[in-house]
Amino acid sequence: MIKVHGVCPSPFVRKVLTCLELKGLDYERLDVMPMATPEDYIKLSPLLKVPALEDGDFSLCDSSVICEYLQDQYPETATAPTDPQQKAKARWLEEYADSKLAELASGLFFERVLKRLIKKQDADEQRVKRIIDELLPPQLDYVESQVPENGYLFGEKLMLADIALTTHFINAEYAGYTVDADKWPKFSAFIARVKAHPIVSQRLAEEAEFMQAIA
C-alpha cells in the first residue's frame, strides 16, 4: 500500500492526499510534523520536508514530484490536463503556488500557528501585517486574473492545479486570514468551490479533527 508521511493540515501533504483520493488510490498516512521529523526521516526526505511517499520499495519526496509520479504511474483518473499548453499552464500555476503563495499565505499559518505549536513562540505580527497589506495583494491580483468565473481551471473537473492554487489559502484561513471577496471576487468564489468539492470537503473535515486535537 502507498504510504504518505506528513500531517494532514500541511498544504503540501493536503495536495498529495487529495491527488490520491481523486484517483481513488488506497493509502496509509503516517504522522510526521514539519520541523520535528524523526531521526531516520532523512532517508526518505533529505531536506526533511513533508510529504514523503513510499509506493512499495519505491520512495520519493516533494509534493509536486510525488503528484507527477502518481499521474504517470496511475493514469486511469487524470489529475492534470493533456493538452500541451494547458499542461504547461498547470505546471506553472503549481510551481507559482508552491513557491510564492506558499511563502506568503502559508507564511501566515507559520507565524500564527506553527510558531506557537512547535517553537513555542509568538507570531511576528509586524510580518503578518506586511504580508496582508503589502505582499499578498499583488499576488492576489494575478491569481484573480487566472481563475474562471465558474468551474475549475481546466473545465468542470477538479484537478491538481486547482488544489495547488487554493491549498495555501486554506492554511491562511487557519491563521485567521480570508481572501477579501470584495477585492478578489473570482478567487474567493473559486476557493469556496474547491473547498465544497466532496473529496476536499471530506479532507477538511479530517483536518478539523486534527487541528482540534492539537489546539
Features:
215 residues, alpha+beta, four-stranded mixed sheet, 58% helix, globular
Describe this protein's structure.
The structure is a single chain. 58% of the residues lie in helices and 7% in strands. It has a 4-stranded mixed beta sheet, with helices on one face. The protein has 7 helices and 4 strands; from the N terminus they run βαβββαααααα. The longest helix is centred in the middle third of the chain and has 36 residues, at 84-119. The mean pLDDT is 95.
Order of helices and strands: EHEEEHHHHHH
- How far is the N terminus from the C terminus? 31 Å
Instruction: Classify the beta-strand content into a percent band.
Output: 5-15%
Task: Report strand order across the widest sheet.
Answer: 2-1-3-4
Rg computed from alpha carbons, rounded to a whole number of angstroms: 17 Å
How many strands in all?
4
What is the averaged pLDDT score?
A: 95
Task: Work out the helicity level.
Answer: 55-70%
Largest sheet: 4 strands, mixed
- Number of discrete helical segments: 7
- Uncertain runs are none
Which structural class fits the helix and strand makeup?
A: alpha+beta
Shape: globular
